[in-house]
Design brief:
Layout lengths: L1 H23 L5 H12 L5 H8 L4 H18 L8 H18 L1 E8 L6 E7 L7 H14 L2 H4 L1 H15 L10 E10 L2 E4 L2 H14 L4
Antiparallel strand pairs: 1-2, 2-3, 3-4
Length: about 210
């Protein structure tokens, strides 16, 4: 009887180890994890897959990027009292909409490691540089029509934001791809993004402006 119990225990233990070994490999491949991250953070797709892959929602990352964008642009426009935050937030939405329409990306694993892989994401984002001359000409035309714009911070900020809102829907996809690295860390049956806020910020920059950090 004792021998039978020992054998049964051995079988159960072996089965448990086998199940655990299989479970640890249930995480999606690193390339697929990267695609899910981009599709969710930028395009708001694969939301459920993101939760299953990374164990949490991407909402916090998306909100953080919008808040960071708003704060930085407000600081550049020298409007720090929050009065332009809604306008800047709506500009962010215009960027996001256009990026969804024309931007594209590819991904490949550059460090094939089971525990700490790296995926390189090549992004053809919005070619905003080609619209610089048009935006500047439009702004100068507004200043010429209303010279007070140049001296009034709020008016100047509004003119700049309106100029971007007009230009962005015309933006084409950049011919030159920029690269963003995603470093992953094995986390049981899921993945963890290292420095996820930095990654998301670099991702938005590449998609919105076609440039790297």
């Amino acid at each position: 009887m004792k021998k039978k119990l020992v054998l049964m225990f051995g079988v159960v233990l072996t089965a448990a180890i086998t199940l655990n070994a299989c479970g640890s490999s249930n995480a999606v491949e690193p390339k697929e994890a990267a695609d899910i991250a981009v599709n969710t953070i930028i395009f708001n797709k694969d939301v459920e897959k993101y939760k299953n892959t990374f164990g949490k929602s991407a909402t916090a990352l998306q909100k953080n990027n919008k808040d960071t964008f708003t704060k930085r642009l407000a600081a550049n426009l020298e409007i720090t009292d929050g009065s332009m935050n809604d306008e800047i937030g709506s500009l962010y939405d215009v960027y996001t909409k256009r990026a969804k329409e024309v931007a594209k990306y590819t991904s490949k694993v550059t460090k094939d490691d089971k525990k700490n892989p790296t995926v390189e994401i090549s992004i053809n984002g919005l070619d905003m540089a080609s619209l610089q001359a048009e935006r500047l000409a439009a702004f100068n035309a507004e200043v010429k029509a209303d010279p007070s714009i140049e001296k009034d911070k709020n008016k100047s900020a509004e003119a700049i934001i309106d100029g971007y809102k007009t230009a962005i829907p015309k933006a084409n996809v950049s011919k030159k791809a920029v690269q963003v690295q995603l470093n992953l860390e094995a986390n049981e049956e899921q993945w963890k993004m290292k420095d996820d806020e930095t990654f998301a910020n670099n991702l938005y920059r590449a998609f919105f402006t076609g440039t790297a950090q």
